[in-house]
From TrEMBL:
This protein's name: Type III pantothenate kinase
Cofactor(s) needed: K(+)
One Pfam family hit: Pan_kinase
UniProt keyword annotation of Disulfide bond present: no
Biological process terms in GO annotation: coenzyme A biosynthetic process
Keyword Disulfide bond: no
Chief site of localization: cytoplasm
Amino acid sequence: MLLAIDVGNTNIVLGLYDGATLTKSWRIKTDAYATADEYAIQLRALTANSPTITGIALCSTVPSVLREMREMIKREFADIKSVIVEPGIKTGVSIATDNPKEVGTDRIVNSLAVFQRHGGPSIVVDFGTSTNLDVVNEAGDFIGGALAPGIEISIDALATRAAALRKIELVKPRAAIGRNTVEALQSGAFYGFAGQVDRLVNQIIAEVGPVKAVVATGGLASTVVEACTTITHVEPDLTLEGLRLVFERN
């Protein structure tokens, strides 16, 4: 069994693969101060009733967690093959940007997965701590994209900075015209973020031409895609799939 681990700024997503089939997945809170031992305890608890892990694929956008995860793998899984997505690892994705070292490993992994599934040009819309739009050309190269504040941090910031407003549950409101403060906030978030995504996708398409797919992924993908007109596929486990593909290549 392959254990794929995607470390994001807010959550860590883990998935167990039997060959090319994702059999189980979990989502836990990212703790930048947790130690290798603490992560090992969590991992052992989650996989206690699962088949033996024979490989690990990992990507991380949080340096402190990457350090502890690396130490955990060294201690707990030294006898199995592990692949950490970093410079020197074969991904099959050429990075055609001004500074390739700036590109997060999750964006590279997403680019690999979307190209393998749909071809190119394609766009990944990753709804996470930030909303990332990743663009892959017809050759499978990552050519850049757009980054915007994520849904949850935007709602949190509004509630923090505006004394009369509050944090809300992000659900589809009864109508775009909110009849109370909560519904007004929900309308602004639900339709506002959907509109932001559609505008960015349309602008990207205007620059690269028609695309094969616009794929939504990430923990918040299901919240606003209903209102998006440009999303063609919703694939919550796209990053895990990319990690599986990177593991196979290495």
